[in-house]
Every structure is written in structure tokens, then in C-alpha cells.
Predict the 3D structure of the following.
Amino acid sequence: MAINYPNGKQFLIKTKIGKNDNSKPIKKVNYSNRGMSLEDFLNETNIYYMEHRIALIHKKPTPIQVVKVDYPQRSAAVIKEAYYKLASTTDYNGVFKGKYIDFEAKETNQQSFPLKNMHEHQIKHMKQVVEHGGIAFALIYFTSFEEIYLIPADRMIVFWERMISGGRKSVTRTEFAANGSLIKLGFLPRIDYLKEINHMFFEG
């Protein structure tokens, strides 16, 4: 059976029927998260936030350097060669309750999150956002455990500076749990990260 999300995507519920009872399901398996990335979850969540007038959050486009363009017709151009530039900031930004929101989203299939997956310019950008009164954070998705942690920028900066000083080059799930918040996967919205941001920055 397929169930449609508001944006047209589907997830499947598979049932297994017993031999002697064709009307009563014996086993139900939910494959709703299989094959979905953190970006998929966030795109669905941000659409939900926008449609319900909760916030306006967008994924920043990846800068592309176009090298070669062909013009087969006057009204058409075909890009033949291009490459991705190094992103200068983080993945997502927008506005929530009058505050500027900016965050990076990463995923890993390991037990710990390798800090090499972050970049120095992203950490620097987070610092600048906080200095100017915005809200910056990271969402880290441990795919093997289906756990997503929201880590405020100040804690992510501490982990980064620890590595720069010769410390550990990764952050464990236990450390994230102690320094951030576990965001459980839901239905609508898929990742209600703004619920935790509201608790951290607006209700405290």
C-alpha cells in the first residue's frame, strides 16, 4: 500500500498474509525511511514548515562554475562542462520567529561523527552567524541507528577546536547526546528540529 506525502512522495507499507487467513495481516513492516537521506527528510520538513506558516527555511544552492556552453539555438543554451565550487557557508538558512536560522546537515554510517566531514569555513561561518545574533547549529544523522542530533553552534565549535588543538578527530553519539538534543523521526513533520530550537532559544 502506498501513502502519499503532501509533496507527492510515497512510502510503502508491506504486509504478509497468513495461509489460513487471507484477511488478517500477520506481520507489518514499515519501509518509510529506507533509502531516504537526511536531505530528503529536511526537504519534506521545510515544505511542511512553509505550508503551515511556521518558518521559511531553504537549502542553499551549490555554487557551480560553468566552463563550456554550447548554443544549438538562439533560444537555448546547453552546459557542456561545469564543476562544483567549494561551498562557502552551510547547507540551510531562513527565518523563524523573526530570527535568522542557519545550519549544516551531515550524515554518517559510523559509530562516531568524523570532524573532517565539517570544514573550517563552515565553522567560521557558524561563529559569524552567532556573533551577529543569529541561531546556528548542526544536524548530525547516524544512519545506522536512525538517530538525528541537533548540536548548537557553540558546542560544535568546541568539538572543532578540540581537534585543532590535537584532540580527538571525531565525536561520539554519547557526546552528542550530552551536548545536544535527539530529534526523533516523525511523520509530519519528518524532523521537527524547530521544536527543539524553540525550546532552546525562545522558551529558556
The chain is about 25% helix and 40% strand.
